[in-house]
Design brief:
The complex is a heterodimer of chains A (827) and B (64). Chain A has 827 residues and is an alpha+beta fold. In chain A, 46% of the residues lie in helices and 17% in strands. Chain A contains 26 helices and 28 strands. In chain A, the strands form six sheets. Chain A has a seven-stranded mixed beta sheet with strand order 16-28-27-26-17-24-25, with helices on both faces. Chain B has 64 residues and is mainly alpha-helical. Chain B has a domain of 28 residues. The radius of gyration of chain B is 24 Å and the shape is elongated. The chains are: A alpha+beta (827), B mainly alpha (64).
């Protein structure tokens, strides 16, 4: 999902100290002491407000279940934000059910993350009278609310949820028919029945296998009859999925001009059909026990595999449907100055749209008023907002960051740049990649089936000429034992598993093709600011200890200034409190000054403050007669030294920084004496460097934070965006790495390599199995019953092998203590 | 022979009962939300509300 400001923030491991308590609501360190209720400190008014609401209604259990369960960054609700929910057509579309009064609606709440959230959201009736009942589906983060329309409205509900910190995310696709959950259920039904039948048939077939001399023929009719009875639903219902998919692939062949082809499900459908038919024949004619245990086994295991794949993919995939990114309605200005809310599909060219803070531009248009700073990170990957002047074009998908703007739409929502973006360029690239992967699997299955048929035909002819009694056994055994499932499952199953393991390790891949690319990387390019470095560290360079009063004085003076050095100092001294100020003045490029408590305070460069310049200081402060020097340096993330040590051994590393060559020495030590460090790189230069490396034959991985990196990230073989907040994603990146997991990069890359090895191993195994199995079967030496046992067991083996090895690799790689030098390099 | 027949039928019935239980739970969407049920179980059914002046013995609120 695109940027969501309410996502959970990393819980800092550092304990709260006296001078810096953690917010009782959200756990963030409180920068000031002034917001409290009794002994509870809060980091902002928003958190305090939520606490007050909850304690008023007796809902403080919220805080008992989990420490600091709240979401930080709660901002005051803009009054008109949910005004569009008052409109009946829009509201009607969102209701799952209504009888005029009792209404059911489901909201998606991306902020849900813990058991406290669940507790609170299921106790909504206590928070508001109109709510009759509420229930949360934690995995889907959806709350279903039953409410009475006479007592409350959809808009009030949305506002209520936002006020307690769980803003609902209402998007265009919510208005459409809810995706049928039924396919999911059908597969589970089929799975249950297949499993039931499989175990019973196996049990009843045991006497056939092991009975030997003591097996009484009288029982066989009974047992076989029951097997047949149970096998029928398995064949007609449970295996239905394979038949219908196979048919979908072949059908175009029978239509005019269509190209039918044998897809993955064709060989499976064939195996099932053959096994079933032969079993029916044998049982009804009394010539044998049939192979219904194998048939139901095949069906059962294949369904399990499909289900696991489906669940894995659905829980990990990025939401790539553009419709789920766009809101459901925007404010449109009428000719007479009044506003009306209109839903997105109803927007026309020429409409004048009013956008507020944080709203998404619905369609391409021209800016007609207001100060526009548009964040195009969703479209281009750049998170630095773009200033747009009145009269210039703005594009759909951008997000207005501050203030109100008006635009005149030039296109309808569907025709806009963003939709076309979804249909080509980056996504065509995706589709092509997906298409290629599917193609190779399809081609494989086609060749497989054709080869198998030809071999069977050849064998039949051979035996017809030599020893006709062996034909039936040989051919049936061949057709049964040859299992394409292993071949096909190997890649998809392992990839699904790997995607899951990667996400556990903090790396979220957009799809399975990235794994293969990751395993072939030999060069790593790092961005500096925001990637290797984070935030700033302010250090007092002088011996003189600053008193609290001094710090407070400094804070009072710098907090009014927007200069980055002032902001850094302000953050560092904020805890000391705010003192009243008289006379404040900022001199551009020099410093700020003011009078606090009768003392003159100056903060700025050495000349301005009259301090003796020191080599390492960036800013100085003078309080009364004392002068102090501060160094403000970006500080490196922890664990980087150990990570770089490991990476250097296997890869070429280089730095591509847009910043000036400060901290060159520590960076050189970090990346290695022989590594290239390039500074002052403009975005195009970064891109060109990557192209140059690729031209030289390298496979490059670029790690950046989206700022100035977008082009380079796209150009590189694998582009990873480092994110503090993992809900943020752009179409431009191949993967998102949780910033806290950066030191694990070497292990993640190893995991990719192992993954590729496992897939190859699985492939090799299944080929070996098929070759050996077929050669034995062709000679008529394999009893079809044995073939029928071997077939599902090969699938099972592959599944267990790949799962087991992947899990083992993961455990071994990630248990190792990262040789983390927590030392932070300074200038 | 009768014994075998009998055993088979009974075991089919028992297993069938469990199968229908599974199908019922699928129908009731119990397989949709994996983590939710685990968390819900741990919630207190009511909270002891903070004392109010005119009602010092406020009882445990019923589960809504």
């Amino acid at each position: 999902m695109p940027t969501l400001e309410k996502a959970p923030v990393s819980r800092k491991a550092a304990p709260a100290s006296q001078s810096r308590p953690d917010c009782y609501h959200c756990g963030q360190p409180c920068l000031t002491q002034s917001i409290r209720i009794a002994e509870k400190a809060f980091c902002c008014e928003g958190c305090k407000l939520v606490y007050e609401i909850l304690s008023d209604k007796g809902l403080c259990n919220y805080y008992d279940l989990q420490k600091h369960p709240g979401l930080s960054g709660i901002r005051p609700l803009r009054k008109e934000k949910f005004a569009f929910l008052d409109s009946p057509e829009i509201a009607e579309r969102l209701y799952s059910f209504t009888d005029g009064d009792h209404t059911i609606v489901t909201f998606y709440l991306p902020g849900v993350h813990c058991s406290s959230c669940m507790w609170l959201l299921e106790h909504l009736p206590r928070l508001h009278d109109g709510v009759l009942e509420s229930r949360l589906s934690f995995s889907a983060k959806e709350v279903t609310i039953h409410f009475s329309r006479s007592k409350t409205s959809l808009r009030t509900l949305a506002e209520l949820l936002t006020t307690i910190g769980y803003e609902p995310y209402i998007s265009l696709s919510d208005g459409d028919e809810k995706k049928a959950k039924k396919p999911n259920r059908t597969r589970l039904y089929r799975l249950g029945i297949a499993g039931f039948a499989f175990s019973f048939i196996m049990m009843m077939s045991l006497p056939e296998y092991f009975g030997g001399v003591t097996f009484d023929e009288r029982y066989s009719t009974l047992l076989r009859g029951l097997c047949l009875l149970l096998g029928i639903p398995v064949f007609f219902y449970c295996a239905g999925e394979f038949f219908s998919n196979a048919w979908k692939g072949i059908r175009p062949y029978f239509q005019k001009g269509g190209k039918g082809f044998l897809n993955i499900d064709a060989p499976i459908a064939l195996s099932v059909f053959i096994t079933f038919s032969r079993s029916v024949y044998e049982i009804l004619s009394g010539t044998g026990g049939g192979y219904l245990d194998s048939m139901s086994g095949i069906v059962f295991f294949m369904l399990v595999g499909r289900l696991v794949q489906e669940r894995t993919y659905s829980s990990l995939s990025f939401h790539r449907d553009y419709q789920s990114y766009f809101p459901i309605a925007v404010t449109v200005l009428n000719g007479d100055g009044t506003t009306v809310t209109r839903s997105l599909p109803d927007l026309r060219e020429g409409d004048h749209v009013q956008l507020h803070n944080d709203e998404i531009i619905p369609a391409d248009g021209l800016l007609t008023g207001g100060a526009a700073r548009i964040d195009y990170s969703f479209v281009t990957g750049e998170s630095e907002p773009v200033k747009v002047a009145v009269g210039e074009k703005v594009y759909a998908g951008g997000r207005q960051t501050e203030g109100v703007i008006t635009l005149e739409l030039q296109k309808r929502v569907a025709g806009s740049y963003l939709t076309s973006l979804w249909n080509n360029s980056a996504f065509a690239r995706d589709k092509v990649a997906e298409g290629r992967a599917e193609d190779s699997v399809h081609r494989l299955s086609k060749y497989f089936t054709i080869t198998l048929f030809s071999l069977a035909a050849v064998t039949a002819i051979y035996w017809a000429a030599t020893d006709p009694s062996r034909i039936l056994n040989a051919v049936t055994a061949m057709l049964i034992v040859a299992c394409p499932c292993a071949l096909l499952l190997a890649a998809t199953f392992t990839n699904g598993n790997l995607l899951r393991l990667f996400s556990k390790g903090g790396l979220f891949l957009r799809d399975a093709s990235v794994i293969e690319k990751l395993s072939q990387i030999d060069t790593l390019a790092f961005d500096k600011t925001g990637t290797l470095t984070i935030g700033t560290e302010v250090e007092v360079l002088d011996e003189e200890v600053l008193s609290e009063a001094d710090r407070a004085a400094i804070y009072s003076v710098v907090r009014g200034s927007q200069h980055p050095l002032s902001r850094a100092l302000a953050k560092a001294t904020a805890i000391s409190g705010n003192l009243p100020l008289s006379e404040w003045k900022e001199t551009v490029a020099q410093g700020v000054e003011g009078v606090v408590d009768g003392k003159k305070v100056l903060v700025g460069n050495a000349h301005f403050t009259g301090a003796t310049p020191q080599a390492e200081a960036q800013v100085y402060a003078r309080v009364g007669e004392k002068t102090v020097a501060f160094s403000v340096t970006p500080h490196f993330r922890t664990g980087l030294a150990g990570m770089m040590d490991q990476l250097r051994k296997r890869f070429k590393v280089l730095l591509l920084s847009g910043d000036q060559p400060r901290q060159q020495k520590p960076l050189q030590t970090l990346l290695g004496e022989n590594s290239e460090l390039l500074f002052n790189q403009k975005p195009e230069e970064k891109l060109q460097k990557i192209e140059a490396l690729q031209a030289a034959g390298h496979q490059v991985l670029m790690l950046g934070d989206g700022l100035n990196d977008a082009g380079a990230l796209q150009q590189s073989n694998v582009g990873i965006t480092l994110a503090e907040d993992i809900n943020n994603f752009t179409p431009a990146c191949d993967a998102i790495l949780d910033a806290r997991q950066l030191p694990k990069l070497p292990q993640l890359l190893s995991l990719a390599r192992w993954g590729r090895f496992v897939i190859r191993l699985a492939f090799a195994f299944s080929i070996l199995y098929n070759v050996v199995g077929l050669s034995i079967a062709m000679q008529g030496l394999m009893h079809p019953m044995i073939a029928a046992i071997l077939m599902p067991s090969s699938t099972l083996t592959i599944v267990l092998l790949s799962t087991g090895i992947c899990q083992l690799v993961y455990t071994v790689l990630f248990r190792q203590k990262v040789v983390a030098n927590s030392q932070q390099t300074k200038t | 022979m009768i014994a075998l027949f009998f055993v088979l039928i009974v075991s089919l019935l028992i297993a069938g009962f469990f199968l229908s239980g599974f199908l019922w739970s699928v129908r009731k969407d119990q397989f949709e939300d994996k983590e939710g049920a685990a968390m819900r179980m741990l919630h207190d059914d009511g909270t002891i509300l903070p004392p109010v002046e005119n009602d010092p013995e406020r009882p445990i609120a019923p589960r809504s």
